[in-house]
Design a protein that fits this description.
Number of domains: 1
Strand content: over 45%
Protein name: DUF1349 domain-containing protein
InterPro entries: ConA-like_dom_sf, DUF1349, UCP022704
CATH class: Mainly Beta
Shape: globular
CATH topology: Jelly Rolls
CATH architecture: Sandwich
Number of helices: 0
Distance between the termini: 16 Å
Helix content: under 10%
């Protein structure tokens, strides 16, 4: 049976505090610093570990969901859910703006980062929820736009013994002034199977 609990923004702690944070009702408006990002080495040759993430404990056999509005219009504007073990072991799952449209994607990092993307042009300007389930040795990543069905977009390994934290993140690698409206932060039970139907 599924259990769900809203996480108060104040229950979590910032990794790399952002430029500004404003509570507006149940929403949290987060303004990223220019140049902020999470990335390690691959293709670009640089390491960035200064993106903004509001993290809480993420134990095995649990799931977290983060909702936000996709109001992105500059290269690499991004937001979603970050899972972090340490500076060399982390996953970011969310929406990133590239090639003129928002893309659903993830970066999985075990020493070096990878990157996977798929365009979701019709999600622009709408509320998206990212869900990451931690079960066994895997992170299962799903997303949905508003009340549309969940889409599975990535399964990645994570050591079951690892101590991890997770929560909403945002980065603005190329510009000033990116403010993301986060609408929800929820802990729930993990998905029971890869295929929900």
């Amino acid at each position: 049976m599924e259990s769900r609990r809203a996480i108060e923004w104040s229950e979590a702690a910032w990794l790399n505090p952002p430029e500004a944070v404003l509570a507006e009702g149940s929403n949290l408006l987060v303004t990223a610093r220019k140049g902020s990002d999470f990335w390690r080495t691959t293709s670009y040759g640089f390491v960035h570990d200064d993106g903004h993430a509001l993290l809480t404990d993420f134990p095995p056999e649990s799931a977290l969901e983060v909702g936000f509005v996709v109001a992105f219009d500059e290269l690499y504007d991004q937001a979603g859910l970050l899972v972090r073990v340490d500076e060399e072991t982390w996953v970011k799952a969310g929406i990133e703006f590239t090639d003129g449209v928002p893309h659903l994607g993830s970066v999985v990092t075990h020493g070096r980062s990878d990157w996977s993307l798929a365009p979701v042009a019709d999600w622009a300007g709408r509320e998206v929820t990212i869900r990451v389930s931690r079960s066994g040795d895997a992170l299962t990543m799903r997303a949905r736009c508003e009340d549309e069905p969940w889409q599975l977009f990535r399964v990645a390994p994570l050591d079951p013994a690892a101590t991890a934290a997770a929560g909403p993140f945002t980065c603005a690698p190329t510009r000033d002034g990116l403010t993301v409206r986060f609408t929800s932060f929820v802990v729930t039970t993990p998905d029971e199977a890869l295929h929900l139907d």
